[in-house]
Amino acid sequence: MTKMITSLIRRLSDGLNHVILLLERRQSSSTQRSKFVDLAPTDEADEEGIYAEAIEFAMNSPKVFNIAITGPYGSGKSSIIQSFLKRYKRDALQISLATFISETDEKGVGANRQEIERSILQQMLYGADANKLPLSRFKRIQSPDVTSVIKSLFMTLGILSVAYVYNFQKDIVNGGYFTPFSLENWFNLGVFSFSIVFAWVVLHRFYVASFGLSLKGISLKDVEIKPANDDETSILNRHLDEIIYFFQRTNYDLVVIEDLDRFNNADIFVTLREINSLVNSNSGVKRHIRFLYALRDDMFVNTERTKFFEFIIPVIPIINTSNSIDMVLAQGQRLSLDVGLDRQFLREVSRYLNDLRLIQNIFNEYKIYVANLETDGENLLDTNKLLAVLIYKNAYPKDFEQLHRGLGTLAKILGLRDKLVEAGEREYRNTIMRLEETLEAGERQVPVDLKELRNIYAMALLEKLPPNTLSINVNQNHAQFVEVFKLSSCDNFDELIESKVIYYKSSNNNNMPSINVSNLQNEVNSIKSYRQRREEIEAKAEENKTKILSKIRDLRPKIASIRTAKLNELLRVDSGHEHDLFEGFGDNGELARFLILEGYLDDTYYQYTSLFHSGRMSPNDNKFLIQIRAFITPEPDFPIDNPHEVIAAMRSEDFQQSYVLNVVLVDSLLSDLIRYQSQVQKLLSHIMSDFERCEEFLDTYYSSGIYVRQLLTELATKWGRLIPAMLSSPNSKEHVMKLISNIPITMLRSHSRDFEELPVFVSNNLTEILLNLPELKPERLICLDFEVKELSTIQQHSDIVNALFEEGLFALTMGNIEFIFEVILIVDDRESLYKNNYTAIRKTENKVLNQKIEENFADYLQNILLPLKTNTEEDSAAIQSVLIHDELEPSVLRAFIEQQTAKLQTLDRIPERMYCPLFESNKIQPSWKNCLSFIQSPVFSEDALTTFLDRDDVRTVILKQAIPLDEESQSLRSFILKANSLTNASYSDYIQALPSIYKTFPSGLEPGKIRILIDQKKVKFSEDNFDSIDEHRELQIHFIASYIDEYLTENDEFLLSDNYLESLLETEIPVTAKLKVIEQMDLSSLSDNSSRSALIANIIAESDLRPKNVNEDSARDLIINSSPIEIQILLLNRFHTLVSDDEVRRILKKLPDPYCEIKTGYRSPRLMDNQQNQELVRWLESRRIISSWKKDIIFDDKIKVNLFRR
């Protein structure tokens, strides 16, 4: 009884609590309700009842058992179902499988089919009251109800009754227990009757419970027996009887199944359709059971869903990427956020949000975050960034959770900042370096182009002037005449070129005649004038310079700003790796890409999860810290009230960024270098790394800072690149003036030695520096060791001019040399500076000037002597003094000596390295002594001496001298003999001058040179020399032909083949020599060599002599193979005595007509009447080969030959 009363009291308490909660909710204000929105599906989604009408139609249709509500995720399917169930008066069973979807597997592919079916079965069976399913094999905990007290009393009484009756079992058996069988024995009879009823109830209970038992298996020690269906794949099929029993015992006629499509498993739908069919076909189920599925449209392929479902209801999404902006704006209006949030940001980010519940949750969290982050009614945080952080938190919850541990994709991207900064700085600096190199090259080219243009017009003008012209002018004013050798560098050059008449002075005339030069410019260029071409060069150079400087000006701030640039800006610069960075966000990475690249999500995210508590810092101090935490650099003069507190609150890395560039902060840091040693070091490091970015701060600090001297001294001490940074700055003059007037002199001197550009800069801007620093001590200028570019620009500062000159601190320029000559040394001989500059300076014997030139002779030579084209009359002593400078490049010295007209007479006291340039440039007097000295030197160059000797003027002079015959000159004679590179004409001349005949040919000599030696017989004729040129058969032949007499005398030593002898016969040797050569040949082989026979025949025909080795056979071959016929007849006449009559007839037979007709017969051949034919017929007649002959009576020029008839 006590338990029953306790249960009733508990139920009453729960009801009262529920009533209290309802009253509290009703008392909540409308403002409180509008702050938040729950995320549960609403039951007011179908206000028009359109979807409810469709579902009602399907529910009332006897043929519809499977109904589908289709639409994409977030389209409102659950809300439509809830709205329908709100109106639906009958029982409906709801099954939702959303709990199986893991965060890492949105589509649910990780859950297998058995898990899905088990969840469906559990939600189905455990959704009903256990008392309604007493026969279910799935046992559940049953809560005791009110009748449990009665049941427990019944069980107690029943047990007691059974125990009581059991004690009287003998009496029951013998019947004594039932005696008397009347009301007097009511207790025994009642107890017995109650026991029988109790036993029946217990047996009935056991019997009913047996229907819920099933044999799972019999397990022995090592043997387990199971039924075959225990391993079936489908749990629903295995427990189909449970499902049918469930619908038999319950009143559900509608089963709502949601989120089943998230598993992408179409087989489960088939199983559910089968179950629906079996349930509706079961005779124990007296109603229609319909399954209502909520799934997406693409769950089934093509038209399969229309075959599967009897009725399909499409859901029009309430939100998508197109109208999500309206939902976002609605949430903003609900929370009155129209002012704080950027509507453009909301429009853009809404394109990536298509889930209404996600949007609602984001703004719920936004309201909570805003309420906590606002302090003192002031919110200094960026509300757009706060919303972006919350969007990221909801869209990527796992990555957001990992972010707090420094893990995840966003943490990885944020960690790239240093690398991106480094890469960006490197790229900008490399670009600036390339642009500066281009600018320097362009600046060097402009003077060259202008000078070339001046030289072109100056030469054209000089060509028009008469010879011996000394000076010219546009009028007859004596004082303004310009010497012609100064024409291209004179100040009034433009006036001279544009003048129509030029007056000139010459050495032959004291008058000042004139010449018309009006057509000068047109002759040089018919399209553009001199002024136009000059302006084009200058304009083009200036335009190019402006463009490059503009690019450099644009790039320099980027170097300074890239370190404080926002993360999204750095990522955009390094756009090539963007895609790889966002792969970790998965398929929905575009949202993160947008938030990060647009700058809404960056490394300031932590500010939106922490609160600020006021302490010892003032509001200004706090605002300063808030601004630097938001990557906003305050102005250099931003007021700070407690600088030491601010320094303590700043991060260590803040001192390496632009945030530290505050006048008050820097003064505080520099005021105590020991205390703030680390911070000062980082301040200096930031200025070193981002000097250009610090320009504004430095400009402010120069004017209002207290410790300017300390700052510059620290920078100069610890930063080796301070000078280049200052000089490349747009405020370079201001920096340099502050530097040279503040840092110690010793340090200034050290920097001037380490950075040559500093003294150069001071020299270039000395006039302006002296104007702004009138009290600057001369010692500070002298310690810089700079060179004044133009002494004339500071002429009014005579004390400084004299001091700088005495120290040699002036640039070696033509202008400065002229200034020194006229103003300091007072030398009135300017003309000599243009004709023989170095000679004139040497004559002054001024120690400072001469020492300056000697110390900087390379610059003097390249910048003054070489460009001074009129400087061609240096004396030999000056030239020799120039050549002894070992530090100069030979190419530069060569250019100098080529410019001079004088030639050195000897190589004495000339450095050996200059021997070659002197010979190559023909600036040494041609003599065999100089040539021998060159040959004997270690720098000897065969090519240089060969080129020198190959010159016509050199050959003309030097061949007038005899080549020395002494032993020391052997190398000279050998060089000439072996001078393969000489032209054949020069080689022939030099070989002819050689006094000796050489025993052998020089090795490696080309054939042309060998031929010259043979022609001039400068080599002894010998078999060894003949063999040494065996690679050149024609030279061997030429060698023998040139020495034919010697050969014929010594022919026994030369075993020449008939081929060599044949080639020898083709040369121009005398005929008598050729006959002797023929006598050395084997004439027996002439029958096989017709060309050789013809050659020998022609030679014999030229002479009256006959070779001794000609016999009958060789004579026949010579006659037959020779040509023309006249030669054949001549040889036949000469050799007929060697030939028999029969052989004569055979030879005649092979001769052309009419000679071939001289044979036995009736014909009478007619021959030309000449001496040879007459001789022929005479001996033919004498030898009885022909009958007779006579001159033809009819033809006077014919001989008639009479033949024997037989």
Automatic annotation (TrEMBL):
Residues in coiled coil: 520-547
Record InterPro entries: P-loop_NTPase, YobI-NTPase
Keyword Nucleotide-binding part of the UniProt annotation: yes
UniProt entry keywords in alphabetical sequence: ATP-binding, Coiled coil, Membrane, Nucleotide-binding, Transmembrane, Transmembrane helix
TM regions (residue ranges): 146-166, 186-208
Pfam families, A to Z: YobI-ATPase
Gene Ontology molecular functions: ATP binding
Domain YobI-like P-loop NTPase: 51-410
Superkingdom, taxonomy of origin: Bacteria
Protein name, entry field: ATP-binding protein
Species for this entry: Vibrio gelatinilyticus
